[in-house]
Each structure stands twice: as structure tokens, then as C-alpha cells.
Design a protein that fits this description.
The structure holds 2 protein chains of 2 kinds. Chain A is α/β, with parallel strands linked by helices. Chain A is about 40% helix and about 20% strand. In chain B, strand 1 and strand 2 form a beta hairpin.
Chain lengths: ~575, ~280
């Protein structure tokens, strides 16, 4: 390997003008040409700020105070501007929708060339070449609305590769992708790394997914400081991930439950590198030792969907023959790739759209003639991004909004708002402005503002999108608590951890039809369903196969039950 | 999606093949022609022409239904108000009075008024299809490159194309937010009082503004990172050279424009065509 660093931070400190404290402290880091480096850290750790320093958004768009030195290609970055930097560093941002500025794939990929005043003919040639590299040559005239998330991301990647940059920087590339597409994205990045020998930097908090392929080094950042700089095996064998609020890969958690001493010698950094010869028996014995009887819950149907069809126009059906019975007190997930009909189904349940055929019953009452407003008192809907719902300055007013619109008297409103805030753990903040809250707390405000209407069922669209492990656990534990109070909860999600850990049932949609309705442990070990819905098998399944356990589904279920048992023991 | 007010659709017709610049110039010339003239014969001819072009562009009624309804309502209201406020406008313009019916007071129906109002309505009817054609057959970024080529600053020209690129996104977001707020009890129907409706609209607009600002931040970062604004000029991936057809189309529009002026100046000797003398 070339021993000349292409990126070199030396005693680098950065402080936003708007902040009282530096976001990055005394960073010393060398990255060599051709390396593939993963930068991880919890939310607010400074990892995105580090990325912004590399691509020049700092100090070009985000102003602040820089001390120390950052050299890229031997040049001090403070002497360069964002345009010069963009010749060496190509950035793929996490929001593949937001960065799609062109009206077609070809035009978007050409954007940099247009700004570089490349003649039209030459530009078309180059775009064609690059489109081939990212497998998009058949989509050059497609508009962003006809593309999947993965295709949009590949377009973005093509858009930075037209410039033949030395360094590719990926800022949370997995954030908006479904599991299968995320896996493919990691494979494409790996292929480009091997073929072109570019320097690759990936900023992510979803460690396990990135480690699907080889990575040279993992750099862990927390509180603006570099906490660790080691290879994947070392970091997974250490306790640093848990200490810093990051999730370790599920298979290593399983190994630990089985009493295996996870050291770097068994190469735990990637699933494919894991040496199982010496640990096989330990895992098998653990699996055998746990014998749990199936818990049988009494089922009381709450919501029944019968033979439901839906289409926007009469030609193509978005949903076909949907039959679901949701029982009281359930916590279930609706999964499937984008466009499979998940959001449409939830819109129909809330009355936002009218189904074309079929019936929906709440208990024994047909919901057909209920207005949106009336349905909201039975089924509450929480949007993905809290900013899409919040319209008041004060928490109290925001939560009270739904009741005030129903002309309830202030006395009763006060009582109900207080109750909702208490359930959501927001009572101490009752007089706070919403702008002072964290993302997770805002999420709770929106949940409280729906709960105050006292719905029996809550539908949440990607409740933990973009959240690190600590915030994820916080939100999910809170929802579990709500569930224990009797609220039936439906998640619409891509997150398979969420589905495994927190739900007892998952409904899988593909092309408008239900292809599976079963326990998550079963769904995530079933090849056919996984393929139909763009899911990914859990690493627990692969682990089971690697150590020679035949009933993989049971192994996964055992893991979930064991984990839940551990958690409930903790709480007592 | 079912809820797009207007959107560029890709077809291969002679109209689609014209450059965006040509269509812009043609649209402006014909609009001026119609605006200038009050000669119902000229306007009728242009109306027929614009409907012919509409057909040539293969635009279906279902695509423009909502727009047509809005326009029809607008014209209707406009005609009623014109009549209510100045029922004698026609008489004033044409200088004669052929009364048909007396309704009450000063409200009578005269041939002059009918001619005047029909002419006026036709003016709208003739221009609207042209606007629709322009919107539905022009690739927005190609249009931006055309604007840039006639001398408009490329940043301003690109703003046009970006607006069109993100308009559907924001529209969709508006609908989502509006539905979620309606579920919380928001009443947007006509039953609510005007003051309440204004207040209620804020409940949708504020979240929309905040989420749109997030979006703008990420778009502008993406553009900066890819060198937008680096030089004083830029090239365009979607730029079309003006072809023979473009010059023919511009020539036709220009002739129609001249014809309209010519008729006014030399035949009618005024902007109005007067059959009453």
C-alpha cells in the first residue's frame, strides 16, 4: 500500500459559530490512498461534521472556527474552496431524493460536467461510460419518480464518479434503503473500491450492514474525539461499541449469550470471516439448553380487514385481496419494499383514501361511513418525520391541538394533555418550546398529540428512521410501554432489528398482495419471502447454518425469547 | 400519482420535438397577438389554430381536466362580473345600440354587449391551450437551457427547472401533512368560518415550511458539492440546437402576430372590429 496519506488531520479542532463547544476536538487521523475506512459513532458524535470538513461544506456552507490542520492530497484545505475540493472528494449524501437535482438520470449524472463547462457531446459520452459502471445505462431517460431508492443512490454515485475523483465519501448511505437494497449498495461500493482503487470513506452507524464486505479500518468517534482506530475484528472483540451506544452485530450478541469469548482471534469482524470450528459446540449446547414452551395468548380480534382492494385509477390495483385480522394488544410490523402498498394500506385504515372493494371492521362496526376525524379516535397515525406534524411553539399547545379542534372545554383538555404527556415522559417539559427538544423527544410530542385523542390502535411510519442505537432503544422501549398499557401498535418499517426485537408478527406485502403473515423469526429465515419483499436474512440465520443447527427459525426465535427474558429480568 | 396538476409528459410529436425556446417565443407572440386584437374573426382563427396544435401534441382531456374546470369557472365569473359592472360597455365601444331584452333598470342585453363579451371570453379560450401546450410538452431543463441561451442568467434559469423538479414532491408532502392534520380534527371544509380556515391553514403550512427548508438545505449542499456556480457560464446536457422546424414554427407565430396587428391597423383602423356600422 502507498504509505503517503491522502488525508491527514493534525490537531484538528472545529467549532460551529452557533455552538458553545467545539464539535471536533484535536483530531489526529491519517487515511492512506486506496484505503477503505468506516467512520462510526452515535448521533451527535461529530462524525457528520468530520465528513463536512472533508468535502468542504465546512467552512463553505457551515461556518465555524478551525484550528490545527487538515491536508487532502498534501494541500491545506483552508486554502482551497469547495469547488477545488470537489475535484478530489466526491460525496454521496444520505438523502438520495434531495440530491437528485436533474429531471432525468442522465441529466443528474451530468450535473458536475455541466458546471465544469464540458461540451454537450463530450458530456453525453462520459455520462454513458459512468452509467455503465453503476448499472444505470438503461435508465438514462428515467425521471426520479420512476426509480427505486437503490437506483437513485446509484445515480448519485454516478454523479460524483463522472469527475474521476480520488476519494469517495458516503454519508450514511444506508439511511433510506430497504435491507436488500442496502446490502446491494455495500456490494457496489466494494466492487468500485476493488476495480478503481479509490479511497473510500463510509460514515454510518449501522455497523453490521457495512461489515457485510471488507473494510480496512473502523474509526469510532464519540463526543468529537476519536475513541478507536482499529480493524473490524479488534473493534468487535472490544467492548467499545456497547460503551459508546452503538449496536454490535446480532451474531456476536448471540455468541456472547452462548458464553463464547469473542476475541479477535476468531475473526468476528465479518460474518464471512468468522471462524466457527472452536465455538460450534458452545453455541449448539446453549441452543439445546434453552427449552421454552410456546406462549399462547388469548386472541381478541380488534380490527378486521376483509377482501380489500384499492386502485388510484381503474387499471392497476395498488392493493389486492387484503385480509388481515389484528388482535387487541398486538405489536405488529408491516414490511415490504417501497411501492408494495404499505403506506397506501395505512392511509386506507386512517380513512385518507377510500378502498375500492372490501370492508374494514373495528370490533363489529363497519368503518365505511366514518370521516377522517372520527377514525382518528380509533386509529391514530404518526408520520415519519416529526417536523411534518408539529405546528405550535409550545408542547402543551401542540398536544392540545386535536382536542381544541374538537371544541372540548379547557378543563378536560388540561386533564387529557397532562395524562398523555405523563405517559410519554414529557411532563417535566410541559412549558418548553418544542424547538429546544431533541429528535426523539419531538417524536414523543407527536405521539402524545395523537395519544391524547385516545386511539385504540397506533400506526407508526418508520418510528426510528435515522436514529442511532441508543435513541432507537429509547423510542422502542417507550412504545413497548405504551403497548403494555393496552394500545395496539402497527409499525410500517424497513428495519429488521425492530421487527425481530419488538414485534410478534409481521405482515409482508409485495406488489400489493400479502405474501406472508407470520412470526418475524420465520419470515427472516424464509428465502422466498425475503426475496419477494427485498428483505435480508438475519445474521442469526447464517450463524445457525455455520455452526450446523438445522432448525434456523427456532434458533432465531430462541435468541429473541432469551433477549426478552434478559431485558425483563433487568427491569425487575 | 393521481394528484398532479400539471406535468411534463414525454411523447414524440412534432410539438414535443420543437425546442423549448421556440415554444416560449411562439407562446409569447401568439399571446400578444390575441391580447392586442379585439377582432373576433382574428381571435376565432387563433383559437382554432391553438386547438389544432393541442391536438397535434396529443394532449388528452383527462390530463388537463382540472385545469380546464378552473379556467371555465374563472371565465364564467369574469363574464358575469363584467356584465354586472358595465352592461353598457359594448354600446360604449361600438357606438351603436341594438337592444334585445330589457331585464330591469340599466340592465339590458344588447348585441354590442354580447359581441364584446364573447370576444373577451374567446381571448382566454384561445390562449389557454397554448399555455397548456407549453407546460406539458416542454422538458423543463431544456427550457432552462433555452432561457440561458437567450441571455437569462443561468442561476435564474436553473431556478425555474428546480421549481418544476421539486414541485410534485412538495405537493405530495402538502397532501400528506394536510391529511395527518385533518385526522387530528382539522376542518378544511367550507363549513368552518373564514378566520378559522385561515388559522387552520397555518397548521399545515408551518410544518410544510419547516420540512421544505430541510429539503432546500440538502439540495443546496448537493449542488454546491457538485460545483454549481463555479463559473460564470455553464453548459447543458439537454440543450437542443434550433432545427429547421423551429425556424418554421417561429416564422408561423410571427406571421400570425403580424396578421393580427395588420388587421387592426389597416382593416379595422382600431383594435375593435365593428360590424354594427
Amino acid at each position: 500500500m502507498n504509505k503517503k496519506p491522502i488525508i491527514e488531520f493534525k490537531d484538528f479542532t472545529f467549532q460551529y459559530y452557533s455552538q458553545a463547544e467545539p464539535t471536533l476536538h484535536n483530531i489526529n487521523l491519517k487515511i492512506y490512498s486506496g484505503e477503505k475506512v468506516l467512520i462510526i459513532g452515535p448521533s451527535g458524535s461529530g462524525k457528520s461534521t468530520l465528513g463536512h470538513c472533508l468535502n468542504g461544506l465546512i467552512p463553505f456552507s457551515y461556518k465555524g472556527d478551525i484550528r490545527g490542520s487538515l491536508k487532502i492530497n498534501g494541500m491545506e484545505t483552508r486554502d482551497l474552496d469547495i469547488f477545488k475540493l470537489s475535484r478530489f472528494v466526491g460525496t454521496v449524501l444520505q438523502d438520495s431524493d434531495g440530491q437528485f437535482v436533474g429531471l432525468t438520470v442522465g441529466e443528474d449524472m451530468a450535473f458536475t460536467l455541466e458546471n465544469d463547462r464540458v461540451p454537450t457531446e463530450q458530456m453525453k459520452e462520459r455520462v454513458k461510460e459512468v452509467a455503465k459502471m453503476v448499472d444505470m445505462e438503461n435508465f438514462l431517460t428515467s425521471s426520479p419518480y420512476d426509480l427505486s431508492g437503490g437506483q437513485k443512490q446509484r445515480t448519485a454515485l454516478g454523479g460524483v464518479m463522472v469527475n474521476d475523483v480520488d476519494i469517495l465519501l458516503f454519508d450514511e448511505p444506508l439511511a433510506n434503503l430497504d435491507p436488500a437494497t442496502g446490502k446491494t449498495a455495500i456490494e457496489i461500493i466494494d466492487r468500485i473500491h476493488r476495480d478503481s482503487n479509490k479511497t473510500i470513506i463510509i460514515i454510518e452507524h449501522r455497523l453490521e450492514d457495512v461489515l457485510h464486505r471488507h473494510v480496512d479500518r473502523v474509526i469510532l468517534i464519540n463526543d468529537g474525539r476519536i475513541v478507536a482506530d482499529m480493524n473490524p475484528h479488534e473493534i468487535i472483540a472490544s467492548s467499545l461499541l456497547n460503551d459508546n451506544g452503538l449496536r454490535e452485530p446480532l451474531y456476536t450478541t448471540a455468541l456472547k449469550y452462548a458464553g463464547v469469548n469473542v476475541t479477535k482471534e476468531i475473526l468476528p469482524g465479518h460474518l464471512y470471516s468468522l471462524k466457527t470450528d472452536d465455538i460450534k459446540d458452545q453455541v449448539k449446547n446453549w441452543f439445546k439448553s434453552i427449552d421454552k414452551e410456546e406462549e399462547i395468548k388469548e386472541e381478541k380480534p380488534l380490527l378486521k380487514i376483509e377482501n380489500l382492494d384499492f386502485s388510484y385509477d381503474s387499471r392497476r390495483k395498488v392493493l389486492r385481496n387484503i385480509n388481515i385480522t389484528i388482535n387487541e394488544g398486538e405489536m405488529l410490523a408491516i414490511v415490504g419494499k417501497n411501492g408494495a402498498g404499505k403506506s397506501t394500506l395505512s392511509k386506507i385504515l386512517c380513512g385518507f383514501e377510500k378502498h375500492t372493494k372490501g370492508r374494514i371492521f373495528y370490533k363489529d362496526e363497519d368503518l365505511k361511513d366514518k370521516t377522517i376525524k372520527e377514525r382518528a379516535e380509533i386509529i391514530g397515525f404518526v408520520m415519519q418525520n416529526p417536523n411534518q406534524m408539529i405546528s405550535k411553539n409550545l408542547i402543551y399547545d401542540e398536544v392540545a391541538l386535536g382536542l381544541r379542534l374538537r371544541n372540548m372545554d379547557e378543563e378536560e383538555i388540561k386533564e387529557r394533555v397532562n395524562k398523555a404527556l405523563k405517559v410519554c415522559g414529557l411532563l417535566p417539559f410541559i412549558d418548553w418550546p418544542i424547538s429546544a427538544l431533541s429528535y426523539g423527544q419531538k417524536k414523543r410530542v407527536t405521539i402524545a398529540s395523537i395519544l391524547v385523542l385516545d386511539p385504540k390502535i397506533l400506526i407508526l411510519d418508520e418510528p426510528t428512521a435515522g436514529q442511532d442505537y441508543r435513541h432507537y432503544s429509547e423510542i422502542m422501549e417507550f412504545l413497548k410501554h405504551l403497548n403494555s398499557l393496552g394500545v395496539t401498535i402497527i409499525f410500517i418499517t424497513h428495519d429488521m432489528h425492530l421487527m425481530l426485537e419488538y414485534t410478534t408478527r409481521a405482515i409482508v406485502l409485495a406488489d400489493g398482495e400479502i405474501v406472508a403473515d407470520d412470526r418475524p423469526s420465520k419470515i427472516l429465515t424464509d428465502k422466498k419471502t425475503i426475496e419477494a419483499a427485498n428483505l435480508k436474512e438475519t445474521s442469526l440465520y447464517n450463524l445457525a447454518q455455520m455452526v450446523g443447527i438445522e432448525d434456523e427459525t427456532k434458533f432465531v426465535q430462541t435468541f429473541i425469547d432469551y433477549e426478552r427474558w434478559l431485558k425483563s429480568k433487568d427491569e425487575q | 400519482m393521481s394528484n398532479k396538476l400539471f406535468s411534463y409528459n414525454i411523447l414524440d410529436t412534432p410539438i414535443h420535438r420543437l425546442s423549448g425556446l421556440t415554444k416560449l417565443i411562439g407562446f409569447l407572440l401568439l399571446t400578444f397577438a390575441v391580447m392586442f386584437s379585439y377582432d373576433i374573426r382574428v381571435i376565432l382563427a387563433i383559437t382554432l389554430f391553438s386547438f389544432y396544435v393541442l391536438k397535434m401534441a396529443q394532449i388528452k382531456y383527462s390530463q388537463i381536466r382540472i385545469m380546464v374546470i378552473y379556467v371555465a369557472v374563472f371565465i364564467l365569473i369574469n363574464m358575469v362580473l363584467t356584465y354586472l359592472f358595465s352592461p353598457e360597455e359594448g354600446v360604449k365601444i361600438y357606438g351603436t345600440r341594438h337592444e334585445l331584452v330589457r331585464i330591469f333598470g340599466r340592465y339590458t342585453i344588447t348585441l354590442e354587449q354580447i359581441l364584446y363579451q364573447v370576444t373577451k371570453a374567446l381571448k382566454y379560450v384561445s390562449v389557454i391551450p397554448l399555455g397548456i401546450i407549453f407546460l406539458l410538452t416542454t422538458n423543463p431543463s431544456e427550457f432552462a437551457s433555452s432561457l440561458n441561451r437567450v441571455g437569462v442568467n443561468y442561476k435564474a434559469a436553473y431556478a425555474v427547472s428546480l421549481t418544476l423538479r421539486y414541485f410534485p414532491d412538495i405537493q405530495r408532502e402538502y397532501i400528506d401533512i394536510s391529511l395527518a392534520q385533518q385526522a387530528r380534527g382539522l376542518d378544511l371544509s367550507h363549513k368552518a368560518k373564514l378566520v378559522d380556515r385561515f388559522k387552520n391553514a397555518l397548521v399545515i403550512i408551518i410544518p410544510l415550511i419547516f420540512s421544505t427548508m430541510d429539503r432546500i438545505e440538502s439540495i443546496s449542499n448537493a449542488m454546491d458539492l457538485r460545483g454549481f456556480g463555479k463559473y460564470k457560464t455553464r453548459t447543458w446536457y439537454n440543450s437542443k440546437k434550433l432545427a429547421k422546424e423551429d425556424f418554421i414554427a417561429i416564422l408561423i407565430s410571427f406571421l400570425i402576430f403580424l396578421l393580427s396587428i395588420f388587421v387592426s391597423i389597416f382593416i379595422n383602423k382600431s383594435r375593435f372590429y365593428n360590424p354594427f356600422i
